Structures are given as C-alpha cells and as structure tokens.
Amino acid sequence: MESMKILFFGYWGANDGLSQATINPHLTILTQFEKVEKIIYVSIERREEGGFLVPKNAKIEHRPYSSRKRSRFLSKASDFLSIPFFLKRIIKRESIDLVMCRSSLAGGIGYWAHRLTDVPFTVESFEPHADYMAGLGIWSKYGLSYQLQKYLETCQKKYAIRLMPLTLKAKERLIKEGIDESNISVMPCAVDSKQFSFSEKDRNDIRKGLRLTDRDIVGVYVGKFGGLYLDQEAFRIFQKAFEYFEGFYLILINVQPKTLIEARCKEFDLKADRIMHTSVAHHEVGKYLSASDIAFSFHCPFAYSYAFSPIKNGEYWANGLPVVISPSIGDDSEIIERENLGVVLDKNMDIEWSRVVIPDVNNRTENAQVKAATDYRGVENTREVYKSVLIE
User: Over its length of 392 residues, how does the chain's per-residue pLDDT go in tens digits?
Assistant: First the structure.
C-alpha cells in the first residue's frame, strides 16, 4: 500500500478549546490508517505556551507557527502573507501528499499553499465564515476582512478536492451553488463518547464540593456569551430556570472575564452563590457534565446558522443530558425536537419548562441522548469520510 504524508493545518492554537475538541480526535483517527505514514500538525500560536496538548503518537509531529504580533491587524496580515510560505517549506521538505485544513479560515491559507505547491487540499468544518461575521454585524460587507474571506471561500469551493461541511443543510446549500456532490462530505465533529460518558463518581464528587443535594437541579453551559452566541437572552433563560426549578444551580464553563458574568448576574438578579463560573481543561469538562441535569446550547439563530454543528451538543449527548438549544442551529435543533432529546427555544427565545425531562441518573449511560451521540457524533462517520479521501 502506498503510504501518505499529511500536513494538517488548524487555525487555532494547539491548546485552544476548539483544537482540543475538534482537531485532536481527528488527528487520532487519521493515525489509525495504515496508509498514513506521517502527520505534520501546524497550529497558529498567538501566545506563549509552556507546552502543547497534542496527541502522543509516533505518526504525529507538531510544528507550531508563532504569530505573536502586537496588533490584531499585523497578526492577521502575517497569517495570510507568511503562513502560506511556512507551509510551502514544510510541504517541499517533507514531500507532503495532502494538506488537510480545519475550518474555512485555515482553508483560505491552505488554498494559497496549494497554489504555491500544487499539492491537493481538503477543508473540513467548511462554513460560510464571512457571512457569519457580516450577518452578526461583526464585519462590514464592504470591509477588507469580509471581502478577503469571501474571496478565499470561493477559491476553496473551486479548488479543494473535498469540502467537509458540518451539516446536511450546509451540503444542500453547496450543491445548490453548483458544487459537485461527489466533492462534498458531511462530517460533524467527532466526540469521544468514553471521555464524556456519565460518571456517578464525578457527579457525587463535584456536587459534594458544591454542597448540593440530590434534589438540586443543575444546569450547565459550556460556551461564550456574545458574538456567535446569545448574551442577554441566555441569562434571561437562566433567570427563568431559577424561577421554575426549586434548588436550581448553574455551572458556567468559559474563559470570559468574571466581571462580565458578575454584571449579567446583577442585571438579571441571579443568585451569585448558586452559580459557579470556571474555566477548565477540555478533558475535565465531562466531570461537570456528569454533575449536571440539563445542558444549554446558545448559538445565535440567523440566516447562516444552518451550518452550525456545536461540538458541545455531542459532548452533552454523550453524557446523557437533555439539551436546551436555540432554534435553527444546523441539523441539531431538528434532531433534538424530532427525537425528544431536549427542548428547542421558540422564536422569542423562550421555553416551556414543563417539557424539560430531567434524566434518570440510573439510566444516564444508555438513554436516547447517548444513542444520539453515537449516531450523529460518532467517530465512525469521520473515519469513513477520511477513508474515502485517502482512497481518492
């Protein structure tokens, strides 16, 4: 069997939560193919790190690209002007056969590397990022950021040998745009079900540390507020959860400033002593999911949210948690509604709390949510997509 050398390019730092959740599992899957001789993983590091949390495997070699510039403009300019040549050197020296890019941001740089070397490239987690940013008012459609990213997404659609959007809805949109269906594979983020499976020990340990009783209902939210995510609307939902459930407790896991959380809690009159705000390593998240009874998933619904596939939903499901989710989020909102895996907020971002079914702790390892994690976020789908790409 002819062996292959792959350059896997991610747009975030190796220790970033997105890399930990969406890149590391995929690197591990790729190493399991006999045909794959070597994977050189390139991450973009924008801060000093004491070490990198990259899968330990003889086939994986991590080569971080340092992009620590004083201003965001200089940093982004460096990304698009310097990294393609950094990748070109690796491709030439290592005789790389295929470049695999994670996200359409990475794909834009991967496209330039392709033009410099003629080595084929793929883009997984391909999304209409430029339209995300414009649709949410973060970028102007007349600004340089939008125009450049939109152009590079068009180039990816034309030159990538495989686009791997996260949702069926995104695939359908690409086909309508004229992209050959054979060049599109739906590949949601793979979730390690074992890592996020329910643990009674973790549940008891965390809840004991928080001085919670068995009767307390715990909600958990892993994610940010603002931008692509709900902000005030999310805290309004939390406020109503405190009103509906007697003994409600909230766990917030993100890296946002405590001052923001404190301000929101004061704005919505939430009990500070019933809220835990923390930031933990990705491999620690499962413990807090086990301690919880309800999970929240708060992406903003808008014209382009059809392409969203939040990794957190798969992690929540793997732990057996019902999910309270925004409407029109990728395929997930429909899956949750259709298979009764939680509750979808209505168009007013409100919820009928009586529909939230608290799972039986004794059944958390084999309920409908756990099955959904395997069906919709299992590693087998990712493995099959990679298999077809490697054969091609």
Answer: 589 999 999 999 999 988 999 999 999 999 999 999 999 999 999 888 888 999 999 999 999 999 866 566 666 667 778 999 999 999 999 999 999 999 999 999 999 999 999 999 999 999 999 999 999 888 999 999 999 999 999 999 999 999 999 999 999 999 999 999 999 999 998 898 899 999 999 999 999 999 999 999 999 999 999 988 999 999 999 999 999 999 999 999 999 999 999 999 999 999 889 999 999 998 999 999 999 999 999 999 999 999 999 999 999 999 999 999 999 999 999 999 999 999 999 988 899 999 999 999 999 999 999 999 999 999 999 999 999 999 87
Read off the DSSP letter of residue 302: S
Could you tell me which residues come within 8 angstroms of residue 143 by beta carbon, excluding any fewer than 6 positions away? Answer: none
Q: Give domain status of residue 155, yes or no.
A: yes
CA dist 105 and 126 (Å) reads 9
The tokens describing 383, both together, are 């493995």
145, 164, 183 - which closes a domain: 164
* Total Cβ atoms within 10 A of residue 8: 23
| Residue 222 C-beta-side C-alpha neighbours within 13 Å | 25
CATH of the domain at 101: 3.40.50.2000
Closest C-alpha to 98, from 191, 12, 2, 174: 2
* Sign of the CA dihedral with 121 first, then 122, 125, and 126 last: positive
Tell which residue, 43, 158, 31, has the closest CA to residue 101: 43
How far apart, in Å, do the first and last CA atoms of the chain sit?
14
Do residue 159 and residue 216 come from a single domain? no
Q: Which domain holds residue 213?
A: 200-377
